[in-house]
Design brief:
Length: about 575
């Protein structure tokens, strides 16, 4: 029987798994694998400028396409640079298979050049991690990796590849089936539990759906919209669940939690049944746990057994994929409309509408309103910070407008590489990234990747000269002691803020964009917002960076006080 090297088998495996795009960065321990990839023509290899950005690109590619993202990096620093991105994908349940180079087996444990125990380092932030010790196990391990990454609760898998193992000759066959003892993802729905939950829904006087990212991950948006239309039950979402039903739907109230709308937080506080689907009930959603949904019975549907009753004790647990559960519900559920409850929610909306104060100068809402009006279809990818919260509050997310962000880990630097991955996976859809001036600079080198891959992404920078979210906390809770948040601060003014003139902002984002070969636009007035987007839309193969000058005093409201309950909302200061 013909034998081939481990490198050849891995390239064959990628083809068998339908991998059409790899995000990779080369090095000594993967150079032979790079050589094998060079010889094939069915998988496109993207060369980013940094492994930290590379894994975010693969992550957004996976989120936006529903496929498994694939990374390839070398040993040592190449592997350790994946850590933040792996944690980002792990918390947000993104299917990734990441291949890391490793030194030859006889060098492992001897402090060899660029040797690290990457499996050990990432054990708590991967769904599965393995060092390939024998060539004959390679095909099985790769097959299992793709299966584990995309089944059950999706997540990242890491395979560490010693250089000598990959050079060995072995079986050319790639397995066609997986049979992993001890890993049997839940399939199907417990009908008895589901019917019990439906009866509770039909009896409730103040029912409320709470949807999380699990609904979007399972691509259950259409089915969930049908469920809302059929039951007439109001909906609140986590920020990761935004888009589970169109934000224009009359029964969608908004986001719940730390920066949730007043009506949403009040609805959770007053509902008598909270029917939650695909959410972990993290602290940004619940506030004080003992005061969360105090009047409600709670139903919890989630693919991950460990997530149920982990933070919030629930009355009816249902372990199931969100789409399978919702589709099964549609067979049994009827109209549960409660007019008085819906009217009460509308009163809360009117009492404290979600909107920024109108100002003569440009606000984040002005920019997002322009995006809502000008783009019938698009994919919005955010960084992390105030701008992310503004997007989650004001951006319309519908059947044709999707939202990607780092929700669980809150990773600054995700926006630009995320937009690149989303655009590569969806070449015919306009992609808009929205970053703060702080987050943008964490991975700004990826403008080179966007230029060379001819990606017409529109990269928006909300520039308030500060690390805005931390500054907001300093303003509200730390006596306006703005420590380590001014991005103009340096040697010329340190310790003398307000006494000397502020240094000029660095960098000049427009000039920097142009130096990369991208288009750069600066907007300082609200009347110029639409023209900037119009100019950006005319670029078919060139990325555009639009810098918006934002007032640092534009804060995100409402806001739950630290340690507070959902009723303890700061509406404005």
């Amino acid at each position: 029987m013909k034998k081939i090297s481990g490198n050849k088998l891995l390239v064959k495996a990628l083809k068998e798994e339908g991998v059409d795009t790899i995000f990779g960065y080369p090095g000594a321990c993967t150079i032979d694998l790079s050589d094998e990839l060079y010889k094939q023509d069915y998988t496109k290899v993207i060369l980013p400028r940094q492994e930290i950005a590379l894994v975010h690109e693969a992550d957004a590619y996976a989120r936006s396409t529903g496929k498994t993202g694939v990374c390839l990096v070398t040993s040592g620093p190449g592997a350790t640079n994946l850590v933040t991105g792996l944690a980002t994908a792990y918390y947000d349940s993104v299917p990734l298979v990441c291949f890391t180079g490793q030194v030859a087996r006889h060098l492992i444990g001897n402090d060899a050049f660029q040797e690290v125990d990457i499996v050990g380092i990432t054990r708590s932030i991967t769904k599965y991690g393995v060092l390939v010790k024998n060539r004959e196990d390679l095909g099985r391990i790769v097959k299992e990796a793709f299966y584990i990454a995309r089944t059950g609760r999706p997540g990242p898998v890491l395979i560490d590849l010693p250089k000598d193992v990959m050079g060995e000759l072995g079986d050319a066959e790639y397995p066609s089936e997986v049979n992993i003892r001890g890993y049997k993802p839940s399939t199907g729905v417990h009908i008895g539990q589901l019917k019990r939950a439906i009866k509770m829904l039909e009896k409730a006087r103040r029912p409320l759906f709470l949807v999380g990212g699990g609904v979007n991950i399972s691509r259950a948006n259409e089915a969930f919209t049908e469920l809302v239309d059929k039951t007439n039950v109001p909906v609140v979402s986590t920020i990761m669940g935004r888009g589970a039903v169109s934000t224009k739907h009359p029964l969608y109230i908004g986001n719940v939690g730390m920066h949730g709308a007043y009506a949403c937080n009040m609805a959770v506080n007053e509902c008598d049944l909270l029917f939650s689907i695909g959410t972990r009930f993290n602290d940004r959603i619940t506030g004080k746990l003992h005061s969360f949904a105090p009047k409600a019975q709670i139903v919890h549907i989630d693919i991950d057994t460990a997530a149920i009753s982990k933070n919030v004790q629930v009355d009816v647990p249902i372990v199931a994929d969100a789409r399978e559960a919702i589709e099964k519900m549609l067979e049994y559920v009827g109209d549960c409309r409660e007019e008085e409850w819906i009217a009460q929610i509308e009163d809360w909306k009117a009492e404290h509408p979600l909107a920024m104060k109108k100002k003569p100068v440009m606000t984040p809402q002005d920019i997002l309103d322009a995006i809502n009006e000008m783009f019938e279809e698009c994919m919005i990818v955010t960084d992390v910070g105030q701008h992310q919260m503004f997007v989650s509050q004001f951006a319309e997310i519908t059947e044709k407008k999707r939202l990607l962000m780092s929700g669980g880990l809150g990773t600054m630097g995700y926006g630009l590489p995320g937009a690149i991955g989303a655009q590569i996976g969806n070449p015919d859809v306009p992609v808009i990234s929205i970053s703060g001036d702080g987050g943008m600079q964490m991975n700004i080198q990826e403008l080179a990747t966007a230029v060379l891959e001819e990606l017409p992404i529109i990269s928006c920078i909300f520039n308030n000269n500060n690390l805005g979210m931390v500054r907001q906390w300093q303003k509200l809770f730390y006596g306006k002691r703005y420590s380590m948040t001014c991005l103009r601060s340096g040697a010329a003014c340190r310790g003398r803020c307000g006494e000397v003139e502020c240094p000029p902002y660095t960098p000049d984002f427009v000039k920097l964009a142009e130096s990369y070969g991208a288009k750069g636009i600066r907007v300082t007035k609200k009347e110029d917002i639409r023209a900037a987007f119009e100019e950006a839309r005319r670029s078919n193969k060139i990325p555009t960076v639009i810098e918006f000058d934002i007032d640092p005093e534009d804060l995100v409201y409402p806001m739950i006080q630290p340690g507070g309950t959902l009723k303890d909302m700061i509406m404005d200061c």
